[in-house]
Design brief:
Length: 426
């Protein structure tokens, strides 16, 4: 499987998932084709919105919990601090938990379970989500995943009033249903992206993660202040349920089953995309593929850095460096905005380099990964040496964030390049 180039695979357009729907009449179909842009771009935009909604629903609790719980901070002056710790870290040893002005008197342990249990469910189903989406159908899998996430988000306020472990149970279920969503989107894009547009389409779609974080940071404070913390969950749930029918209406598993694809676009996709899920995965060959194993290590490192900056970055800037909450919000807003723009630049540059023959596909992937990882390493090393200069720390954290999206057009695309039939699994 390692040695089967994408361009040499046999084209098979039979739909294994039975997602074909009755086509519109010729007149209706032609009228829609005039109104719509190329359908592959509609798929990408809906993918971007899906990633954005996914992140809004996923991380809404992280924002809302500050307003949900009462002040449970307790004196903890015995915590040792290293030499040279910033004054802010010394001042913040008086509390060891999230504190707020809400009504729920949850212990530190309960808060930790509620915040973290989502990722246990997410880890379980993301491991198998790619295979699930390939067998059931990635179009259907993503719709069910985000649709159910929206319903569970609407249930979160009720569960919180019922019992903290009831909320934890809802969050666990949310993690389980969200796990297959990103592998499913990956499988959809593998069938809709021509090689000359592959990196651009993937980075645009997955840049929705940055958009989701940006929208959450920009609106959650206002929503909590004017509508109440419950609307952080209601808003994410409603948006998810609004997105689902749009996805079902305008996306299909393959261009063959889409009623609005023009003959020109279908010809482009049928000539350049050769993807059909296989019933059996050659696991032994996959695990022995020397090109695949580095991707696992790169995914681990990338996920670690991204999660670190997303989840621990705000606390680090506030509690350790001494930034105010407004300053932290400004830094992260700038960082997420630049992350979104640079993701698009990485993707478009990759496609131009390969399309123009400037670099081979593999060297383009290497170049993008090298650029991003140099920024990440320089930023992380700089953070260790920056001391307590809060604005220097902020700039270096943004450098790390800007380097991270390069992975969307480096090892992330390797499964599509090497074995698109197993893109979701890989």
């Amino acid at each position: 499987m390692c040695h089967t180039p994408r361009e040499h695979q046999h084209t098979e357009w039979e739909d294994p998932h039975g997602d074909s729907t009755p086509l519109l009449s010729s007149t209706q179909s032609k009228s829609w084709r005039v109104l719509l842009p190329p359908i592959r771009y509609v798929v990408v935009i809906l993918g971007l919105l899906g990633c954005m909604v996914d992140y809004l629903v996923r991380f809404g609790l992280s924002v809302a919990i500050v307003s949900m719980v009462v002040d449970t901070g307790s004196p903890n002056t015995s915590l040792p601090l290293p030499d040279g710790a910033c004054p802010a870290a010394l001042n913040n040893t008086q509390h060891d938990s999230v504190s707020g002005e809400g009504t729920f008197d949850w212990t530190v342990e309960q808060q930790g379970i509620i915040l973290g249990i989502f990722f246990w469910g997410y880890f379980i189903t993301k491991m198998t989500g790619g295979r699930i989406s390939e067998m059931v159908g990635p179009w259907q899998t993503m719709a069910v995943s985000l649709g159910m996430s929206g319903v569970l988000s609407l249930l979160c306020p009720f569960a919180a009033h019922l019992h903290p472990m009831a909320l934890a149970s809802v969050r666990l279920l949310m993690g389980l249903v969200q796990g297959p969503s990103f592998p499913a989107l990956y499988s959809v894009l593998a069938r809709w992206a021509p090689p000359d547009e592959l990196a651009t389409m993937v980075t645009i779609a997955y840049s929705g993660m940055s958009c989701g974080s940006l929208v959450a940071m920009g609106t959650s404070g206002w929503i909590i202040e004017h509508l109440g913390w419950e609307w952080v969950f209601y808003g994410g749930g409603i948006l998810s349920l609004l997105w689902t029918p749009l996805w079902l209406a305008f996306v299909r598993n393959s261009p063959k089953n889409h009623p609005f694809v023009t003959p020109q676009e279908f010809s482009l996709l049928s000539l350049n995309i050769h993807v059909k899920p296989k019933r059996h995965v050659p696991w032994s060959r996959l695990l022995r593929c020397w090109r695949f194993l580095p991707c696992i290590m790169a995914e681990f490192a990338s996920s670690w850095v991204t999660t670190l900056t997303t989840t621990e970055g705000p606390t680090f800037l506030n509690a350790q460096i001494g930034m105010s909450l407004d300053e932290v919000g400004s830094v992260l807003t700038v960082g997420q905005t630049l992350t979104w723009f640079t993701a698009l630049i990485y993707g478009r540059t990759s496609d131009l380099l390969t399309k123009n023959g400037t670099l081979s596909k593999i060297n383009t992937r290497r170049l993008m990964h090298t650029i991003g990882m140099v920024l990440v390493v320089l930023g992380l090393c700089g953070l260790a040496w920056a001391g307590c200069d809060k604005w220097m720390v902020a700039v270096l954290l943004i450098v790390v964030m800007v380097g991270c999206p390069s992975t969307l057009c480096s090892f992330t695309l390797a499964p599509m390049d090497i074995a698109p039939n197993y893109a979701g699994v890989c």
